[in-house]
Design brief:
two-stranded antiparallel sheet; 254 residues; mainly alpha; single chain
Length: 254
């Protein structure tokens, strides 16, 4: 008798296919898991210092925000110098030396010679004039930093005896927004931008300058809102104590 060839079981073939697909997906998953994620840094706190004993939580918050805002300005200065190398050549023989000079002038509250003795918003206005001939990067960063420090009462570190005017801090944030708009819109007499900052073209987009300015503005707004709320809650807490005081007294039990 002639034997008939066996017909493959369709259900068995489908089951084998499923097992093969699942095995492939599992292998891909294991490969992806074995790849280390990109490291984006870690949150780092400062070492304890005795001056912190003289700081409240709000003092500490304002101090850290000021430190970060100044560091952001120094980072912006580096970016601007890299895109505008002719500017640092007006101040020093190298980009690094020019940055050092500006940093020292800011941290030690020394006047910047090209700003004609002007400080605060007057210096910022002069640095953004199309006719300004000096190192515009240095003048802009110095004036912006001086404006920030002035809005915080002339201090970069705060203790229990220091206070902040939230409206001044709020105004500083708006001043930076205006300065950013001027840099992106005003032209030099030659028709070129005052400074090359953001890059938006068909070939590349670099908005790192814009993002760093946005970080400073965000911190300033947070400090302004927090300070306003702290003062408001202090008044409310005092009023609550006056109103609720008579009802919160313990009653005699004997």
């Amino acid at each position: 008798m002639t034997s008939v060839p066996a017909v493959p079981d369709a259900a068995a073939s489908l089951s084998a296919l499923r097992v093969s697909v699942l095995s492939g997906l599992l292998a891909l998953g294991l490969v992806a898991c074995s790849s280390a994620p990109t490291h984006h840094g870690e949150v780092e706190g400062e070492s304890f210092h005795s001056r912190e004993l003289l700081q409240s939580d709000s003092n500490r918050m304002a101090t850290l925000a000021m430190k970060q805002n100044l560091e952001s300005l120094f980072l912006i200065m580096d970016k601007l110098y890299r895109r505008n190398p002719n500017e640092w050549k007006k101040t020093a023989t190298s980009r690094e030396a020019a940055m050092t000079y500006v940093r020292i002038a800011i941290m030690e509250r020394q006047p910047w010679h090209e700003l004609q003795g002007k400080r605060d918003v007057a210096a910022l206005s002069l640095a953004l004039q199309p006719e300004f001939k000096g190192d515009r990067v240095a003048a802009f960063i110095y004036a912006a930093a001086d404006m920030l420090v002035t809005s915080h009462g002339g201090r970069t570190s705060f203790t229990l005896i220091d206070g902040l005017d939230p409206q001044h801090v709020f105004n500083a944030a708006r001043n930076l927004e205006i300065a950013n708009w001027i840099l992106n819109s005003r032209k030099a007499p030659t028709g070129q931008p005052l400074l090359l900052s953001n890059q938006m073209s068909e070939d590349a987009r670099n908005l790192s300058f814009e993002r760093e300015i946005g970080k400073i503005i965000g911190r300033l707004d947070l400090i302004a809102d927090y300070t306003t709320e702290r003062y408001r809650r202090s008044v409310i807490g005092y009023a609550q104590g006056l109103v609720a005081g008579p009802f919160m007294q313990f009653l005699p039990v004997r």
